Q: What sequence folds into this?
């Protein structure tokens, strides 16, 4: 269930590009990878498969609604989940794939081709900062209090000398909010960049490890969040006035 919760939030909602209304599921050998995107952000989570009866790679797109229902059916995060994939269907079973299963869910797969997500993941980012997940999440929520329809972005100003990031937002006739957070590490040049605060808190809410690495290239380039080796999140910046 962890793979699903760490990706499903980034799927598109009623997008005309039907393929991104689901989550890409890829398995190769004993490596399982789930990917979701709505065109403005991308979440990728990896894990190992305990056992596999298929030798070749498998790739399919599972509907978001089916995965949401699967999460509701889950009772124990450690309960084994068996998956069977056919040409146009996926079957999920809590327990064995037979009449001993506690619950079984079958769904049609999403038709279409998932975007080439590997091309979206930025490379050679020369600014790397480390921070505490909960501290930054709290700061983003506080800084976002003064965002509105006209100014949805939160500005993040990274200061190398103080090893801090200042988060701020401003709304006409309401004022300005500023929050400063200490960073655990800082590599590279100082930078100011804006993000949709909801996109930041969505990812920070599902990251399991307390230490998070954020990598940047420039104010108009996407940011990359990493948590260990099994989760990454790409988010596009917003233009700040």
A:
């Amino acid at each position: 269930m962890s793979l699903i919760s760490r990706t499903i939030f980034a799927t598109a909602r009623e997008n005309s590009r039907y393929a991104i209304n689901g989550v890409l599921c890829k398995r190769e050998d004993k490596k399982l990878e789930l990917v979701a995107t709505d065109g403005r952000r991308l979440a990728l989570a990896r894990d190992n498969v305990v056992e596999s009866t298929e030798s070749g790679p498998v790739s399919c797109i599972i509907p978001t609604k089916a995965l949401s229902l699967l999460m509701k059916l889950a009772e124990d995060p450690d309960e084994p989940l068996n998956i069977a994939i056919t040409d146009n269907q996926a079957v999920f079973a809590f327990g064995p794939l037979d009449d001993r299963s506690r619950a079984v869910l079958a769904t049609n797969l999403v038709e279409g081709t998932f975007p080439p997500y590997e091309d979206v993941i930025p490379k050679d980012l020369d600014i790397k900062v480390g921070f505490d997940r909960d501290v930054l999440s709290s700061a983003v929520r506080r800084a976002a209090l003064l965002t509105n329809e006209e100014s949805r972005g939160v500005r993040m100003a990274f200061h190398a000398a103080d090893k801090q990031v200042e988060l701020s937002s401003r709304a006409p006739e309401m004022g300005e909010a500023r929050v400063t957070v200490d960073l655990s590490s800082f590599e590279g040049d100082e930078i100011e960049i804006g993000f949709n605060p909801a996109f930041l808190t969505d990812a920070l809410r599902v990251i399991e490890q307390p230490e998070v690495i954020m990598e940047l290239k420039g104010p108009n380039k996407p940011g990359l969040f990493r948590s260990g080796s099994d989760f990454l999140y790409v988010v596009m910046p917003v233009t700040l006035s």
